[in-house]
Amino acid sequence: MRKMLIATLVLVGSVALAYPAVASERVVTSEAVSVRASVLERTLGVTGVVARREAVTQLRREELLLELAKQEGVDFSDAYVRDRVRDMRTTSETAGENAFEEAATAWGMASVDEFVADPRVLSMYRRGLLVGEMRLRVVERLETSPTFDGASDESVDRYLSVALHGVSVRVPNVEVRMRE
Amino acid sequence: MESTERYKLLALLVVLVASIVGCPTSLFAATRSTTTKGTATLLYWTELGPLPFPYPMEVTTRATYTAKYDSRTRKTFTNVSQTDQSVLLKGARNSPCGLEMAVTTTVFENRRSEYRTMTRTSSGSKNGSYLVSSSSLITGFINTRAFSLIDPRLETRGSVAGRECMGQKTLTNRLDLP
């Protein structure tokens, strides 16, 4: 009886631990949508519903690019991500800019050293680099296609739709989970 | 005979000097280029905070031209046969920013006068950027339309922005010909 109880607890525990990792792969959170929408408001000048709709579209596309990376076994090592972040920090400091200081402050960290060593920061950098890498790979594949009609976002979406789900009608809906 | 030869030589020299001094124009061809360097820092916002993505950036203009100086009017006529302009972003291969790069060249005439004349603009590269090395992206175009101007100034503006990121960068390049 005790063994069964322990086994059940282990099973429930492992599922509970694994669930967020699995779920987060295809979840666009409301925080992410709000942040991206505010960026779009400042860069594109769009507001309200239009900004949120575009934010969701962009974030969905990023999730699908990450899904494609996983499907094709593309990933960056910790060392690669650390090297890239270190290179970018050097570029910024050589140019006399304080972008990394401002970012560290925005993340609530005391120093840039702490910022570039933080696992959450490196994880987000890895995510960003993977999105960029996969977008470029998709565009390169589109350019060699005989039906290439420009590397627009719509073309990338159509490619992802076919590559991941075998349908070319529209971008499949990714679950939008409101985490309030 | 010796004096005759001497006279012939002297006459030849006179003709040569006269042809050089008396010639109203002189012509030369060349290619010149200039590059402006800077850094484009784009901010990729996550729900946890911003991540800076700074990239070294270069805007280059290269012009192939012939210049003809008219000693009577004391003006140099420059015939530009080709301009090549580009904007380069180093290390931007896997940028998450959805980069958009553009380059435009404006040609001014009479740069030495108080009022310069804008004669033409060229903007290019509809096909987006492409990789020139394992990690650097470039966009640009070559203009082969020839035009002739007095004291031209080629002003090239290269810009970089990201659809998914905040921030943009524009670098300006000036190339005075000849």
Describe this structure in words.
The complex is a heterodimer of chains A (180) and B (178). Chain A is mainly alpha-helical and 180 residues long. Chain A has one domain. In chain A, 73% of the residues lie in helices and 2% in strands. Chain A has 8 helices and 2 strands. In chain A, helix 2 (30-43) packs across helix 3 and helix 4 (78-94) packs across helix 7 (119-143). Chain A is globular and about 50 Å long. Mean pLDDT of chain A is 79; it is low at 11-25 and 169-180. Chain B is mostly beta strands and 178 residues long. Chain B has a single domain, classed as Immunoglobulin-like. Helix content of chain B is 12%, strand content 61%. Chain B has 1 helix and 10 strands, in the order H-E-E-E-E-E-E-E-E-E-E. In chain B, the strands form 2 sheets. In chain B, strands 1, 2, 3, 6, 7 and 8 form a 6-stranded antiparallel β-sheet that branches. In chain B, strands 5-4-9-10 form a 4-stranded antiparallel β-sheet, with no helix packed on it. In chain B, a hairpin with a 4-residue loop joins strand 2 (49-70) and strand 3 (75-89). The model of chain B has no long low-confidence stretch (mean pLDDT 82).
